[in-house]
Sequence to fold (193 residues):
Amino acid sequence: MSGVHPDAEVEPGTLLVAAPSLLDANFRRTVVFIIDHRGEGTLGVVLNRPSDVPVDDVLPTWGPHVSRPGSVFVGGPVEQKTAICLAAMRTGEDAAAVTGLIGVRGPVALVDLDSDPTMLVPKVRGLRVFAGYAGWDVGQLAGEISRGDWIVVPALPNDVLAPPEEDLWGRVLRRQGMPLALLATHPGDVRTN
Fold:
C-alpha cells in the first residue's frame, strides 16, 4: 500500500464518520458529507447537527421548502454566517439541467440560494440548509484519517435529508458490515458504560 494517500477514498459524495475516539466538540459522533475534495483542500457539511434556528428566520424565501424539521443545521465550525444548501434530486432529474444547482454526486446537488426556489422545488425530493462548513487544508484530512479520527464510507442520497431524531452516525456505521458495524454500539460516554 505504499504511495497510497490516507485520503485517497475521499471524494465528493463520500461520508466522513467520526470515530468513537474523536472527542473534538465540533465533530464528536458526526457524519460529514464531502462536497469538494481537491488539491487545495476539502470541504463538507455535518449532516447530523440541527440547530434551533428556523430556516424561515434567516432565509424566508427558502423556509417553506426545506425538509423537516425546517431548521438550519450546523454544517461545521468554519464561517458559520455562510449558508450552504444541499438538495436531493427527484428520480430522473439532472442537476446539470437545472439553473441554480451544481451537481455534487448522483442525485445530490448544491443549491444557489440566490435562485428562485419555486423553480427548483418541483425537481427535488428535499432541501437542507447548513450554517457554516467543515474544512481541511491540504494534507490535514489525510493526517486525521491516518490518526484514526475519521472512517471514510460511501454516502446514500437520503443521508443528506436524514431526520434529526434518527441516529445517522449509528445507522451509517451499522450498514458498513463487520467490523465497522460494531462501532455503532459504542456508548457516547464510556464512563457510563
User: Anything to note?
Assistant: The radius of gyration is 17 Å.
